[in-house]
Amino acid sequence: EHMMEIRRQNCNPMIMKVTYYKKPVFIHQGHMQWLWDVDGRRYLDLFAGVATVSVGHCHPKVTAAAEKQLRKLWHTTNIYVYSPLHEYVDKLAATLPEPLKVIYLTNSGSEANDLAMLMARLHTGNFDIITLRGSYHGGSPQTMGLTSNSAYKYPIAIGLGCIHLPLVKRTVHVMDVYFTTIIKHYIISTITGLCMANDKYIGQLKEVFATSVPSRIAAFFGEPIMGVGGAVQYPKNFLKDTYKLVRERGGVCIADEVQTGFGRTGSHFWGFQGHDIMPDIVTMAKGIANGFPMGAVVTTHEIAASFGRGVHFNTFGGNPVACAIASSVLDTMKEDGTQQISHEMGTYLLMGLSKIRDKYEIIGDVRGKGLQIGVEMVKDKASREPLPPAAMSEIFEDTKDMGVLIGKGGVYGQTFRIKPPMCITKDDADFFLAVFNQALNNYME
Ligand code: PMP
Fold first, then answer.
1. How far, in Å, is the centroid of ligand 1 from the Cα of 50?
2. Are residues 274 and 360 in the same domain?
3. Domain co-membership, 45 together with 16
4. Tell me: the pLDDT tens digits for 20-42?
5. How far apart are CA 436 and CA 171, in angstroms?
6. CA terminus-to-terminus distance, the chain
7. How far apart are CA 202 and CA 241, in angstroms?
8. Domain membership of residue 212 as a residue range
């Protein structure tokens, strides 16, 4: 009977809408890098609930910490203090450099970015915000305005359009000119990569600021490596130069670390540390609590002071159970060597995928850092046009049928995304490489 009910739900049109796959994959259980569906089929999970399960599904240590806290205290709100909150903010602050030491806890990445946007506006007294083409910053009405990809704006246009869209649109400026160049360039990046001389980028960047950016701005939002945009990496010094131009116009610089934080990029704990920059505000979520809903905004004492005391109230933000879990995630990361695994397995996968790229006409680019990897698919290496959705879907489904779950993204939906729980092994990587190679082979036949 239970199985019958599950089958019925499988046909629920709402479920069909949110699933990536032609037929929903009905997940029943998870352990570390593995997921099982209701029929007992095992999948290697290389998407981690969109880069979220950081140390492994139902990691025993984190699960034990959650259970312990659940028996003690579930909820109070932040009008009280309690030890899981104290312990956690100390631990989180220790992972960040000075002057990023003031922490606000939220329940998601969108909430964190909403709060960061408000903070930037209150601190600077300015209103305009700059984001990058291809970026994704959230699903709330405000953060959807920050997100450039129109595919994700659909609900605003349809559902809330007349009320919210103009408000957001007037004040958020997507750096189209510059980023169209990069994205276009990126699609042709198999051979040239992002090796365009940096001074040319700086020239373009200055031009965009001179022609399209208002004279006073509140903030610039940028991910250290673009996540949903398809693991897009910027040219050297791009973020550094952008930060300089933004600050010259009175704005603050916000690093959206929702995907790139917590060791995801391998070589650094925070993605921004790979860019020789110091953000004024850092937002985070996803990997922070291994899949338990949580987010955070970290900023400086100076910015926090203009944000003011008492403004920030959040019923669930900093919930004791969330804090106990997030705290255990940080401990577990140290014990399991999570960041090191991300670095080593990321390098290994990038090497393996690059070999596969050289074999197939339809792989335009393999890129990323740590376990934040993108495989950009093209019609052929000569035209370098995005591989159409139907073809993407065929390879994607085939990979799933052979037991591996991956993600999709990119401005044209042309990039496969590999962001596993950061506990995968070399055997897992080899298994995926063999499966992916086979799926490409099947498609080409
Ligand atoms: N920022 C980035 C970079 C993201 O990838 C996402 C989610 N994909 C968000 C913000 C929004 O996070 P959430 O879905 O937790 O609201």
1. 9
2. no
3. yes
4. 788 888 899 999 999 999 999 99
5. 43
6. 42
7. 7
8. 61-336
Q: Do β-strands 129-132 and 172-175 pair in parallel, antiparallel, or remain unpaired?
A: parallel
Which residues is 31 bridged to in the sheet? 34
Counting atoms of ligand 1 from 1, which one is nearest the CA of 226?
Answer: 3
Q: Assess whether the C-beta atom of 109 lies below 6 angstroms from ligand 1.
A: yes
Tell me the best of 286, 292, 417 to mutate to test the pocket of ligand 1, counting ligand atoms within 8 Å of each CB and taking the most. Answer: 286
Torsion of CA 81, 82, 85, 91, to 10 degrees: 110
Is 21 within 8 Å of 395 (Cβ atoms)?
no
Q: Which of the listed ranges 92-106, 207-221, 298-312 does the model predict with the highest average pLDDT?
A: 92-106
Q: Tell me the three state secondary structure of residue 334.
A: helix
**DSSP per position, 301-317:** HHHHHHH-TT----SST
pTM of the full structure: 0.91
Helix (H, G, I), strand (E, B), or coil: what is residue 401? helix
DSSP state of 369: E
**DSSP conformational letter for 199:** H
Percent of the chain with pLDDT over 90: 62
Q: Are residues 117 and 253 in the same domain?
A: yes
Please determine, for the modelled complex, whether the ipTM score is greater than 0.95. yes
CATH of the domain at 79: 3.40.640.10
How far apart (Å, rounded) are the C-alpha atoms in residues 253 and 246? 7
Render pLDDT for 267-288 as a digit per residue (tens, 0 to 9): 999 999 999 999 999 999 999 9
| Centroid of ligand 1 to alpha carbon of 109 (angstroms) | 5
